[in-house]
């Protein structure tokens, strides 16, 4: 029998998804008809030319099935609309992942507001504005964040083992560093709950299985060292708060939460354990991302999202204990969060500079009518180009 509470909860879930959708499209609006240079279009020509086995084509070294699966959807549409469709597909995937996080956190909190804020932490992640919004090649980073959060919740693992396993499988075949998010699983594997242990071991098999597949493809040396030749791993003069916060904030905030968790009034609060799990995964992701990719905005998304969610859970516990300063504490936290969100809300110059995709395709179409057997270059933001055959441009 469906209760009023269940109906209200379902409507809240739908409303939350609607808000997430409005926010993510508002962030990406200026870039919706543009394609970023960093992996933004590479998968689409492959999807147009090849069959579904292209999903397992490495780029450039490891498997990245999430981006290639999204490209298969984009490839269905005429090339003139590839930028708009690409942004739309990616935005909707972010919304789905935000709702996935909502569902995972709700199993721990049973609080719709807290769960909605947890999913919102991904949707409004400030560091996504530089190159990740609407970008097919960056789906793996929010995907990693969502899986890492699921691994921190024993209640979610019991409730949604198959869903988490499927998302983890996709993430593992898209991201070679997913294995670092299994530290909470290793702790939960010692649980006295037999059902939980069984489901945890299944998830570990999925993650380590995909890691072995990635290592076999990439090679152990590259898997350990990452792309040291092309990544930036040293600070530079005038970096700015955007980069400093992305590098240092998640780890420092996780350490702060660890310290606060030991304080007597906080020690036995509702979310104490999951905050430890989130903190461990935050640091593990921050370190591994730096080793593999250096200082790059896309690598900030997962650890930053986990850090924000641990902060949300700490705030909920804190205000339930110190009720006299509840409003003041929430106001301070709101200001702390809203400033970077507003400042880095809209898509940045990397995604919004350069010509629109439709204008590039229109110019290419004129050229290809006279040179049907040629290749043509389509410019992407903020620089670079994608080589495409003229038959693809004029194809109806």
Give the topology, please:
Layout (H helix, E strand, L loop, with lengths): L3 H25 L14 H7 L15 H10 L7 H28 L2 H12 L16 H12 L2 H6 L1 H12 L10 H6 L5 H25 L1 H6 L15 H21 L2 H4 L4 H22 L7 H21 L4 H18 L5 H4 L4 H14 L4 E5 L5 E5 H5 L2
Antiparallel strand pairs: 1-2
Account of the protein in words:
This protein is mostly helical and 396 residues long. The chain has 19 helices and 2 strands. The protein has helices at residues 4-28, 43-49, 65-74, 82-109, 112-123, 140-151, 154-159, 161-172, 183-188, 194-218, 220-225, 241-261, 264-267, 272-293, 301-321, 326-343, 349-352, 357-370, 390-394, and strands spanning 375-379, 385-389. A two-stranded antiparallel ribbon has the order 1-2. The chain is globular, with a radius of gyration of 22 Å. The model has no long low-confidence stretch (mean pLDDT 90).
